[in-house]
Design brief:
With 265 residues, the protein is α/β, with parallel strands linked by helices. It contains 9 helices and 9 strands. The longest helix is centred in the N-terminal third of the chain and has 36 residues, at 54-89.
């Protein structure tokens, strides 16, 4: 099984950790490392403002500052520890071809992925892939989406499930990329025993994936072999979500502390 990884340069857990994991059970044929232009970030900001309006976007900005101040150091320590754990568990990569580009949809990315001749491509990126890109692998292009689909599609699905008190739907979805936004075939759901009081949204966002690498490897191998069965979600509610809001974060944490007190009584 030949695999290829698309990831962001500023996410070492993916770039340096997930790549080693992929190489442990497949032939890692290439890594596309994204160094996005500032224009791409401005485009995301404009899109979010169009989604929620300028006043609500201020709620988004407030969350970013609060989250960084309250959880930033702890999140960095957790990510560093997890990366060290992955490096200790999985051997150093062989000489794997890498492409550094600003978008997975560039002509050079398309040429690189074609040359890699991969069966499975793992997309760990914020940019939607063009069909001419996600259709290149022989078996599938897959996303490890931090959210339960179809109820929590698009961004920050774990956060919004927690904010909605939908505690049974805090997890990650392994799905096949299609032309929609997290609307492809679902091959599995993954979670862990999260601590909504003492863990940040970022930690939960990451752990639903990184605490499940062994079963994920099994499912990806089954997809390549053609033996994996997709899950029918056609009768379920579907919704898209956006960036976290500070107002909803504070309400979630308040409810989480209340639930903890009630459990201890």
């Amino acid at each position: 099984m030949r695999t290829l990884l698309i990831c962001h340069d500023q996410h070492p857990l993916d770039r340096d950790g997930l790549s080693r994991w992929l190489a442990s059970f497949s032939e890692l044929a290439g890594v596309v490392v994204l160094q996005e232009h500032a224009s791409r970030k401005r485009k995301r900001i404009r899109r979010e403002i169009q989604r929620v309006g300028i006043l609500r976007f201020l709620d988004v900005i407030a969350f970013r500052f609060y989250d960084r101040f309250v959880w930033g150091r702890k999140d960095q320590q957790w990510e560093a520890a997890k990366l060290a754990e992955l490096k200790a568990e999985y051997p150093e990569l062989p000489d794997v071809p890498r492409l550094i580009t600003h978008s997975p949809n560039t002509a050079e990315a398309e040429e690189f992925i074609q040359a890699a001749n991969c069966d499975i491509m793992i997309a760990r990126c914020k940019t939607l892939l063009a069909e001419r890109i996600f259709s290149l692998p022989r078996a599938a292009t897959l996303v490890m989406h931090p959210g339960i689909c179809p109820e929590y599609r698009n961004a920050y699905g774990c956060f919004w499930a927690l904010a909605e008190d939908d505690l049974e739907r805090v997890g990650m979805t392994l799905l096949k990329v299609d032309a929609g936004i997290d609307t492809g075939g679902v091959y599995g759901y993954y979670t862990y025993d999260y601590d909504e009081v003492n863990e940040s949204q970022n930690m939960i966002h990451n752990r639903v994936t990184f605490d499940n690498l062994l079963p994920l490897a099994e499912t990806i191998s089954e997809i390549h072999a053609g033996t994996a069965e997709s899950i029918d979600t056609s009768s379920r509610k579907s919704a898209t979500w956006g960036q976290p809001w500070l107002s909803r974060y504070l309400r979630w944490k308040k409810n989480a502390r209340r639930r903890l007190r009630e459990q201890s009584q």
